[in-house]
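Summary of Year 1 activities. Much of the first year was spent building the evaluation harness for sequence design. The harness presents a backbone, in tokenized form, and records the residue chosen at every position. We chose the following record to illustrate the format because it has been used consistently in internal testing since the harness was completed.
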């Protein structure tokens, strides 16, 4: 299968690298376009992919087209490639906020899938949520999952939930990193070096996530399992589980979801 990328930024590179590493696609079966010749040359050297400055040429050469451009550039790109798309093309958009309905309105043909990836794709641990447009049949689900699983995990959800998805998994790495940084600062104040505190915090976060995945435990159940009455964890949770903290975290997700809704209407 030949796969194309219109837009060759970091997220596109992460998906390309995953496809090649997992042997889903050969490097010479991937073609990318971008406005930057320098960026394309860099990717060609590093990954061995084929490159072009012509977006339409990408579409003519492949069966799957990833749209990896900024949301404000998407409509122009869609109009440019529309005459070259057929019903045999699968169009995968990672442009934030742009709905499948909007994309399909500018494309006379092609099956459309919208994806909300996150930055962890850069290390092969991304959370990629996707939804199919009305022209994409159920049989496309497995293909899209296979493509996206090459750089992490994939989950299909209704498009109506994408603002919440954007707030949690799209923006989530920044929120988790912020919380981790605050915990590290606290440990440094208690006498640890920042380097040691980072190692401890990062592995603890990674281990906790992995334990939840492997065991299927609810986060609240794991928290309870670690907490002994009148122990150190209980003392910390007494501070963490205040009404103020709960409200801050709830408002954090709410604000990000609201901004996603606003961008979708722009």
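For this record, the design step produced the sequence shown next.
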């Amino acid at each position: 299968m030949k796969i194309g990328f219109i837009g060759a930024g970091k997220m596109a590179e992460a998906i390309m690298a995953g496809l090649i590493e997992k042997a889903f696609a050969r490097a010479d079966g991937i073609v990318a376009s971008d406005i930057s010749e320098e960026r394309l040359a860099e990717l060609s050297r590093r990954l061995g992919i084929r490159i072009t400055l012509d977006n339409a040429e990408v579409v003519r050469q492949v069966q799957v087209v990833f749209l990896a451009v900024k949301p404000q550039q998407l409509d122009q790109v869609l109009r440019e490639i529309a005459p070259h798309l057929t019903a045999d093309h699968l169009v995968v958009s990672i442009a934030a906020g742009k709905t499948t309905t909007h994309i399909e309105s500018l494309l006379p043909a092609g099956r459309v899938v919208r994806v909300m990836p996150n930055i962890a794709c850069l290390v092969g641990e991304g959370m990629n949520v996707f939804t199919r447009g009305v022209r994409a049949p159920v049989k496309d689900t497995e293909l899209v999952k296979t493509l996206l699983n090459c750089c992490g995990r994939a989950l299909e959800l209704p498009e109506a939930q994408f603002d919440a998805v954007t707030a949690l998994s799209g923006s989530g790495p920044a929120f988790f990193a912020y919380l981790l940084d605050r915990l590290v600062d606290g440990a440094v104040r208690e006498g640890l070096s920042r380097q040691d505190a980072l190692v401890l915090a990062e592995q603890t976060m990674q281990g906790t996530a992995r334990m939840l995945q492997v065991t299927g435990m609810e986060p609240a159940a794991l928290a309870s399992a670690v907490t002994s009455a009148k122990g150190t964890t209980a003392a910390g949770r007494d501070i963490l589980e205040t009404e103020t903290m709960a409200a801050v975290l709830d408002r954090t997700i709410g604000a990000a979801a609201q901004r996603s809704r606003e961008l979708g209407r722009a």
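The longest strand covers residues 126-132. Quantitative recovery figures across the full test set are reported in Table 2.
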